[in-house]
Design goal:
alpha+beta; Immunoglobulin-like; eight-stranded mixed beta sheet; globular
C-alpha cells in the first residue's frame, strides 16, 4: 500500500544475462529467493555470503567461524524528499520512518541530491556490520567479515529503501533457531488468529482447521524450546 504512488514498493529478480524477461522465469526467481525489495532508488545488484547468493542453497560451516560477505550496491543521485524514502522526518517520530501507507507530510516535488546511505548487514534480525555509501548513481563494491557462532540467516539492507532475501549459514548441520522471543510471538499470533476467526469458519470444517492451527502453534513452541536465546 502506498499513499504516494503505484509502484512505491518493487521486487527485483536476478535473472542473469538474458536478452528479454520471461515472466515464468521471473516468477521462478521469486520462488527461489533470487530477489530483493526496493523503492527503485536503491539497489543490491549482487549479494553473497561465503560465495553464495540468496536461493535454495545454504552455506555450510563445520564449526563457528567468520564468513565473508560481498555486495554491489547503488543509490540514485536524486531521491524524493519524503518520509517513505527516509529523507524527511515524520512528526510521529522514528517509528514512522519509511512508512508508505500514510502521507505523513504535505506532498511535494522536491528531491534530495547526493548524500550518503547506510548499508547494514543483518544477522538473525540484528545489525552486525554497517558501511556508508555515496548516493551518486554509481555501483559500489562492499566487503564485510561477520562472525557466525550458530546457524543463522544473513541479509543486507538500507533502511528504509532496500532489503535483500537472506542467505542461510548452517553451523554443524543444526537448524536455525536464533530467537525464542520470535518463535513465541508467532505462536501467540496464531492463537489470536484462531480466537478471532474460528467462528467464521464453516462448522463442518472447524475441527480440521483447529487441528491445523494447533499443529502450527506446537511447531513454533517446539522451535522456541530449541532456540539458543
Amino acid at each position: 500500500m502506498s499513499s504516494r504512488r503505484v509502484g512505491q514498493g518493487r521486487v527485483y529478480v536476478n535473472m542473469g544475462d538474458v536478452d528479454e524477461v520471461d515472466f515464468t522465469e521471473w516468477c521462478r526467481g521469486i520462488q527461489q529467493g533470487r530477489s530483493y525489495v526496493s523503492d527503485g532508488y536503491a539497489h543490491a545488484l549482487e549479494f553473497q555470503v561465503g560465495g553464495q547468493s540468496p536461493d535454495f542453497e545454504e552455506v555450510q560451516l563445520k564449526e563457528p567461524g567468520p564468513v565473508e560477505i560481498t555486495a554491489k550496491v547503488a543509490f540514485a543521485a536524486e531521491t524524493p524528499r519524503a518520509v517513505a524514502y527516509g529523507l524527511l522526518d515524520p512528526p510521529e517520530g522514528k517509528r514512522a520512518v519509511g512508512d508508505t501507507r500514510v502521507l505523513h507530510a504535505p506532498r511535494n516535488s522536491e528531491y534530495v541530491t547526493g548524500g550518503e546511505r547506510l548499508v547494514e548487514i543483518v544477522r538473525n534480525g540484528e545489525v552486525v556490520a554497517r558501511k556508508k555509501v555515496p548516493a551518486d548513481g554509481q555501483v559500489h563494491d562492499l566487503k564485510f567479515t561477520v562472525p557466525v557462532s550458530q546457524s543463522s540467516w544473513i541479509a543486507l539492507r538500507q533502511f528504509p529503501q532496500l532489503h535483500t532475501n537472506p542467505v542461510n549459514v548452517i553451523v554443524d548441520q543444526r537448524p536455525i533457531r536464533a530467537s525464542r522471543e520470535s518463535a513465541l510471538w508467532c505462536a501467540e499470533t496464531i492463537k489470536l488468529l484462531w480466537k478471532n476467526r474460528h467462528q467464521k469458519i464453516a462448522e463442518r470444517e472447524r475441527p480440521a482447521a483447529e487441528e491445523t492451527y494447533q499443529r502450527a502453534i506446537q511447531s513454533y513452541l517446539k522451535r522456541a524450546q530449541e532456540a539458543v536465546q
